[in-house]
Design a protein that fits this description.
heterodimer, A: 71% helix, 0% strand, B: mainly alpha, two-stranded antiparallel sheet, 7 helices, 68% helix, 3% strand
Chain lengths: 686, 180
């Protein structure tokens, strides 16, 4: 959360009360304080926001017993009466008029201030006069929207005031005299830094100066280098604009820079603030009219930033942020079940193109894309960040279309295909760039996103059932499910989806042929083995799947059985065991009769009436029947034994798979989850 | 507000800042004139004055780095309008402030500041090269040659972030004059 530097500056102003009091010591000793006393120290409070400044001026007026406009009027009358005035009175009047403008935002006051301060146009004027001369002119340049004049006056202020005063200030500071009442305007230097920073970074944006500020990047860098916030005895660090300044510098020189353009950085920063505001409203008010207006304002601000961006670095910075907004809007629409017209004037295609440009420069030339100052790591960070937002925006928008398809049967076919197109585009992007050697350019989370997109594509045509897909679409769904299984084999419910898709093509028998290579990759994976050995995140689930997928029967269960049928499968094992028991008993009985026959051959007395338990004479039809039944029964028993052994081995494994902890929810919500790394390795191992 | 705490320190402080305080109050001291006076002074500084000069040179060095980074980024983006604006500022900055700071001969051979002095000259020349002031680059080269004659083995920072012998850096600067 960005703190409000203007509000904090109010604290600094409050902290400076002591200085103002000291400044007015002479006046206080003499009696009533005057506007002269306060205007000489106006650099302390002139950067306050309009409301605070008005309160302050009202307070001073009450204390002095004279409103500021009356003071201005009196100085003019005095000048006319005397036929001239001291230059300090002229300066104070110009400052008073500037303060009137800053508190009321009435441009007429500013024009008068400019007219008054014009007497200090001579560059040999005193530093204090030159400070106010440039400061007032810079305000007018902002009011008029003249970037060139604004930049010129800020640079000139630096040249005419800061450069000559810095060395003396340090001398005085070394002697603890920098804040002495006798040190003159040199003691104002910390405030000059603060005011120039606020003027360049905050006021310029407040006044809509979204162009031509790039030369001031040098001043901003100078201000950040041991100047703003470097004098806590004068302005407490927490009350200075240093934190804000450092954020700007970080962006100016980091991966979100447009080749070092200050204008771009400030405009994007403002857009980000607008985005934060709309996000806050979305959370508190949902998609209310106010929220929608705020989202439009943020989108429009991002639009200004993209218009300014001249390098792929800057374009990537804008797309990274605006895609996040796009994803948030789609997610909110889906979550809240409303569909207001909120257009974000950016497309995922644009982001894909920018990624393509960045990717093409990977073997050289990346520095020329705006990363010369920020460096190679920033280039990589920018690529990975953009990719992550592309995948999130894709998945969120596709989810939205599918949820709309469920709610709107009349348009479900079109909406489903919209979702499918989004998924397909991401998958094409993934298959093009997510190569084995692209670890630096593609985030690990891209593989799980590929699973989600591939599964989403398949489900759109197979699981939802309202798109009336053609044979080609079903075939593509089969291929997508295969891709999804390669990218994330630890989703138990995905395996039967492949079977369902194959059934739609009359090819259910192909399941094993298609699924086995994927299962074998997981079962034989050395990366998975190493992961389990090191007890990496999700190891138990990974180990369970690895063991299960190594067994073909478990694989068949995963393809053709569902979790709810597990109990039936287990009861079928009990049936089999019972059948085996009965068969064994029957075979034992038959074997007894046969054996009795052998014993009967010892004497005729053994020969009975030919009943079931009686001995059977060898060579008779009955003996041949028994022999045949024993032979058939033996085969059946062997088969049953095999079935029982297989099911006894496979069903516990299948149950373990069914009951294993799901990894998908964690991976979906955590882009940095360690299992993403395993997924990448597994994918390229196959 | 900080106060002077002892009489002894007060006396010392007064002596040190007497030139400033002489015109304190409503009429401000003419710091620019004093800077020029300091710059043309040829006697080597010592004590606090030398420490102050070190600070000034160090600050100027850091400031030039920031100017160079900004100029480089604007040149990269072919932003000729912004380049022209900063160019005008730098021209004045180097022509007045930096020229005065680099004028004394003694500081190019004073062991405590000569490295800073040399680094600053190279960085200034680099900026001239970026601004396509070929003649000024040549003047800087000749000035460095004269000031550091016989000390070509002295390590300097040029280009930014790299250290090499002064003679080698000069050769790079000569090449840079035409290739910027």
């Amino acid at each position: 959360m960005i703190s409000n530097p203007t509000r904090l500056f109010g604290l600094a102003v409050a902290a400076m009360t002591a200085l103002l009091v000291a400044a007015g010591t002479a006046a206080a000793n003499a009696g009533q304080p005057t506007w002269d006393d306060y205007l000489d120290f106006a650099y302390v409070f002139s950067s306050s926001d309009a409301e605070q400044l008005t309160d302050r001026l009202d307070g001073y007026a009450a204390e002095i017993g004279l409103p500021l406009d009356a003071y201005v009027k009196r100085t003019i009358e005095d000048r006319e009466a005397k036929g001239g005035e001291d230059s300090s009175v002229t300066r104070r009047r110009a400052i008073a008029q500037l303060l009137q403008y800053l508190s009321s935002r009435e441009p007429g006051h500013l024009d008068k201030s400019v007219d008054t301060i014009e007497v200090f146009a001579d560059e040999n004027s005193r530093h204090e006069d030159r400070y106010w001369y440039h400061y007032i002119h810079a305000h007018r340049a902002l009011e008029r929207g003249s970037d060139t004049d604004f930049v010129r006056h800020v640079l000139a202020l630096w040249m005419d005031v800061v450069v000559p005063l810095e060395s003396p200030f340090e001398t005085l500071q070394a002697l603890s005299l920098s804040q002495s009442a006798n040190s003159g305007f040199v003691s104002a230097l910390p405030y000059v830094f603060e005011n120039v920073a606020r003027l360049s970074l905050l006021r310029s944006q407040e006044m809509g100066m979204g162009f031509g500020l790039d030369p001031l990047a040098s001043i901003v860098r100078l201000l950040a280098d041991q100047r703003v916030g470097a004098h806590p005895d004068v302005i407490p660090v927490e009350a200075s604009v240093r934190d804000y300044l450092e954020r700007i510098i970080h962006r100016l020189e980091g991966p979100e820079s447009d080749g070092g353009s200050l204008t771009f950085t400030l405009v994007l920063f403002e857009a980000t603030k607008a985005h934060d505001a709309s996000r806050g409203l979305l959370a508190s008010e949902g998609l209310s009219d106010k929220t929608i207006a705020s989202i439009r304002a943020a989108s429009s601000a991002y639009g200004r930033a993209i218009d300014l961006a001249e390098t792929p670095s800057g374009q990537a910075a804008v797309y990274t942020r605006v895609l996040r907004q796009m994803g948030e809007v789609f997610a909110a629409k889906q979550r809240l079940g409303v569909d207001p017209d909120v257009e974000v004037p950016f497309t995922i295609e644009g982001a894909l193109q920018v990624y393509g440009m960045l990717h093409e420069a990977r073997d050289g030339g990346w520095a020329k894309l705006g990363f010369r100052t920020s460096g190679y790591e920033s280039y990589l960070e920018s690529m990975r960040g953009l990719w992550e937002e592309i995948q999130e925006a894709t998945l969120n928008s596709a989810d939205y279309y599918l949820s709309r398809a469920l709610e709107d049967p009349a348009r479900s076919s079109d909406l489903t295909r919209n979702a499918a197109r989004l998924y397909a585009r991401y998958l094409a992007h993934f298959e093009r760039y997510a190569t084995a050697d692209a670890t630096d350019y593609v985030p690990d989370s891209a593989y799980f996103a590929a699973y989600e997109a591939a599964r989403g594509y398949g489900d759109a045509f197979v699981a939802y059932g309202f798109a009336n897909p053609g044979p080609a679409e079903i075939q593509l769904a089969v291929e997508r499910y295969q891709l999804a299984l390669r990218a994330f084999p630890f989703d138990r419910t995905l395996w039967p989806s492949l079977t369902t898709a194959l059934e739609r093509r009359g090819r259910a028998n192909d399941f094993l042929a298609l699924a086995r290579p994927i299962a074998e990759t997981v079962a034989g994976s050395r990366h998975a083995a190493s992961w389990i050995a090191q007890d990496g995140a999700g190891s138990r689930t990974v180990a369970t799947f690895r063991k299960g997928l190594g067994d073909e029967l478990v694989l068949m269960y995963m393809g053709f059985a569902d979790a709810s049928g597990l109990t039936e499968l287990e009861s079928s094992l009990t049936d089999l065991k019972q059948r085996r028991g009965k068969l064994r008993a029957k075979l034992d009985q038959l074997a007894s009769r046969r054996d009795a026959n052998k014993r009967g051959n010892a004497g005729p007395a053994a020969m009975g009436a030919g009943g079931e338990g009686d001995a059977v004479r060898f060579g008779t039809a009955e003996s041949r029947r028994i022999a045949r039944e024993l032979e058939d029964g033996g085969r059946q028993l062997s088969k049953l034994e095999k079935q029982i052994a297989a099911r006894a081995r496979a069903l516990p494994l299948f149950r373990a798979v069914v009951e294993s902890k799901e990894l998908a929810p964690e991976l979906r919500s955590q882009r940095q989850h360690p299992v993403h790394t395993l997924l990448r390795r597994l994918y390229h191992e196959g | 507000m900080t106060r002077i705490r002892t009489n002894g320190l007060r006396a010392l402080a007064f002596a040190a800042v007497a030139p400033f305080l002489a015109c304190a109050g409503n009429s401000e001291p003419d710091f620019a004139a004093m800077d020029v006076q300091n710059a043309v002074e040829e006697a080597p500084l010592g004590g606090e004055a030398l420490a102050q000069r070190r600070m000034d040179l160090d600050r100027a060095w850091r400031d030039l780095l920031h100017f160079e980074a900004t100029m480089e980024s604007m040149v990269d983006r072919r932003d000729s309008r912004s380049v022209a604006l900063l160019d005008g500022f730098l021209d004045e900055y180097m022509g007045t402030h930096l020229a005065a700071l680099l004028a004394p001969q003694w500081q190019s051979s004073h062991p405590e500041v000569m490295a800073l002095d040399a680094n600053l000259r190279f960085l200034q020349a680099e900026l001239f090269a970026q601004m396509r002031y070929t003649r000024r680059v040549q003047e800087s080269i000749e000035d460095i040659e004269n000031r550091f004659l016989g000390r070509e083995g002295m390590l300097v920072e040029y280009p930014r972030g790299e250290q090499r012998p002064l003679g080698e850096a000069l050769q790079m600067l000569r090449d840079r004059k035409w290739t910027s």
